[in-house]
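Structural prep section.
Before we set up the soaks we want a predicted structure of the protein with norvaline in place, mainly to decide which crystallisation condition to try first. Input record follows.
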Amino acid sequence: MTKHLLKLSDLSKTDFEVFFERAMELKRRQKQGTANRSLVGKTFGLLFDKPSTRTRASFEAAMVQLGGTPLFISSKDTQISRAEPIKDTARVLSRYFDGLAIRTFSQDIIDEFARFATIPIINALTDPYHPCQVLSDLLTILQFKKTYEKLKIAWVGDGNNMAHSWINAAAVLGLNLVLACPEEYFPNKIIVDEAIKKNPDKIKVTTDPVEAVREADVVNTDVWASMGQESEQDARRGVFEPFQVNSKLLAEAAKDAIVMHCLPAHRGEEITEDVLEGPNSVVWDQSENKLHMHKAIIEILLTS
Ligand code: CP
Ligand code: NVA
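Run finished without errors. Recording the tokens verbatim:
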């Protein structure tokens, strides 16, 4: 098991399976009301540079439920905002915490934290990746479909951080993943090419949302403008319109397809209200599974 969780391409298939198994076990125990106090005495920091509802709340709840203590820090209230070097911050916070989740902009920042920290560093979203989200989304697929093998997974919309983490996961797990994005918003070519090298036949990027969604078992989308891209929102709206997940597009998918969105959703943009609230949508279970997966992640990384 890796010491840090920075991006999914760093994990082996066994690492993924260890996370899934532990998350399922912790979920079972929570539903049965059996307490699991594996992190008593541990302190977990959350250093966030961007807003968050789910990731912050589920990591904090996960830590409390496992008997440990979470400590949230908004980066803008720290000396980082006054140019204290990352390498100094990383070494100082390592003296206080047993693990640290970071939500920030560039991957370089989190990589630098990982280089200098002596505690596990967990990527809670960066511009190019959202690994913990895709781990918990795979848990949701396992919940509804029992397996991720032999499924067709569609990604419709922006070739963003979520898309990149799906591509990373597809390479390691051998997933059948078809992404439909406007050409100017294709996922990063280096990330796609590396993944295709590992999983040559089952990862595809197209500009045709119907091709991606046709007979798909899982239909996944995300906002058209991510955090930090707010100024591009209006310009993007026009380009992305044909990539809306609506009932017409969903009719192309398998009848029992599940619709996923990591949230927050912009109803009427990347997804329509009727699809988000409709019978195929699993978004609330998807949000819940962040709690169970985050428990598995912190328990495994903070105790190994
Ligand atoms: N899905 C997700 O990461 O949500 P938050 O931005 O609310 O954490
Ligand atoms: N792609 C989105 C995900 C939010 C959870 C963003 O980065 O804003």
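Observations: The radius of gyration is 19 Å.
Flagged for discussion at group meeting.
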